[in-house]
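Section: protein folds

Sequence with per-residue tokens
===
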Amino acid sequence: MAIEVTRTYVGSIQNHRQVRDGLDSLGDSASKIWNVARWTADRIWDVIGEIPDEGVLKSYMKNQSCWKDLNAQSSQKVIEELSDAFQSWFDLRQKDSKANPPGYRKQGDTRPKSTVTFKADGFKHDPKNNRVRLSKGSNLKEHFSDFLLCEYQTRPDVDLSEVNSVQNVRAVWNGDEWELHFVCKVTLETNESAGDDVAGIDLGITNLATVAFPDEYVLYPGNSLKQDKHYFTQAEYDTEGENGPSSKSMWARRKLVDRETHFFHVLTESIITECVERGVGTLAVSWPEDVRESDWGTTGNKKLHSWAFDRITQYLAYKGEMRGVEVLKKNEWDTSKTCSNCGDTTKSNRVERGLYVCSSCELVGNADCNGAENMRQKITPSPHGEDRSNGCVAQPSTYLFDRESGMFRTREQVVS
């Protein structure tokens, strides 16, 4: 069976020296549009106490001279990004009154260069010759047909002439140079169901994922990711400049984002591979509905805001779809306090963060494993207690992220 999915492919610009100045100008223009719109939103906020919506800002900005520095759709995309940033701030402010609103973008050599998005009428793609023509706004054109012609190269396994369509092209500054991101529609062949068995997965903050397979429990701790966040966040703060982020600070931000992206891809790939090898065709994933609206205090809210449960679920879904594993989001309500062996729901059974002790059947086990098993039982017809025991729940396997190989391995493999 074939499915159509969206993929983003990165292309390095081969004629970077020839097009860099032009891309710098476009990046500067995107920053200017953002800053003018941000200033306008601030003035309206002072008068009426509300941030103007996306449509109002677009209507106002169309009359500003900077609007025509970019292709119209590219300018509109900047306003859409600003509106999304304000919405994220509104959501976060409900839990953290000290949350900062979207700021201004620095300009000049010390500023982070703004990404420029080119939609349908802003680019012309020539995949046979690995070239893409990017439009300039009328203010930046030296003549009517002026444009930037970028020659690019993708990974050897990527052929953009075989994709269904390129939806948009983004010029992104990676810290050292500009690169192109091609957002494409791609048709992929999917496998038949990996099997008839069911697994459940409990997503958490300390153990990012705990999986209840039919014959084993597996913990995937987030220790490596936590270490990266501490190191690179500290590096960012230590090198913050007086006039905004320094180049070292921006490097730390980019490095952390890259590490996180790799980590989540490897994590989800490992889980889906385990499902395929164990004949698991259905994976029930805990979905914490309304968790973003919960108030867990200042420290707790920061952890919840950075909790990537939605990102992990998204990665699991599309990786599973290609390999015959159906990923189902299931409400995790009561799974942390319910005994997976007898169904007792006494709240005090959850003795502490990592320990579950049932007051009825005396099951003693890892609390995350108990939650994962409850997720599994939301799908499987197996009754409570049919195939679980204290030893199984209390002694899960642990897969750690191995920095040397960049993969998840059993604890024994990593230590050795």
User: Anything to note?
Assistant: The longest helix spans residues 16-48.
